[in-house]
Amino acid sequence: MHLLLWGEDSEAELRSEVAEAFPGAPAGDAGPWLIASDFEMASDRSLPHLVFARQLMPHARPVSAESVRAWAGLLLDAIAGVLPDGQPWSLQIEPHYGSRANHRIGARAWHSRRVLNGECRTQNEEGGRGEMRGAECGMESEEEVRQAVVDPEAGRHRCRLIREALMELMKRKRRHLLRRLRREPAGFAPEDSLVQLLLTAPEAGFVSVACAPIPFQQRHLISPFPKGELPVASDKAAPSRAFAKLVEAEARLGRLIGPGETCVDLGASPGSWTYVAVNRGARVTAVDRSPLRQDLMENPLVEFRPGDAFQFKPSRPVDWLLCDVIAAPERTAELLLEWLRRGWCRRFVVTIKLKDAERGDVLGLLKRQLPPLARDLFLMRLCANKKEACAFGSRE
Question: Which structural domain, as residue segments, surrounds residue 302?
Answer without folding.
Answer: 243-394
